[in-house]
Amino acid sequence: METLDGDELRRELSPELGFSRSDREAHVRRVAYISLLLARNGVISIVALISPFQSSREYARNLIGRFIEVWVSCSLETCRKRDPKGLYKKAEEGRITNFTGIHDSYEPPTNPEVIIDTEHENPNLCGRKIMAALTDLGYLD
Question: Out of 51, 55, 75, 105, which one is annotated catalytic?
Answer without folding.
Answer: 51
